[in-house]
Design a protein that fits this description.
This protein has 3 helices and no strands. It is mainly alpha-helical and 70 residues long. α1 packs antiparallel against α2.
Length: 70
Amino acid sequence: MSSARRLEYLAIALGVVGAGLMLAFDVTVTRVAGVAALLGFVGVGLFAVANPGYLSAGEDEAPDDAEGRV
């Protein structure tokens, strides 16, 4: 399994855990842990998506506005 795939799974897991902690419990400790997990979800998700494989996948295609259409 590639490291990018592991980061994707980790981001999904952090999102599920963070949302679960935030929605299921109403204790300060679980709220803090839920916010930390959701911040981890955003950070890890950023690194999972912003890798060279994803960024270079659409290089061959021109955006709609670059073809002369307005």
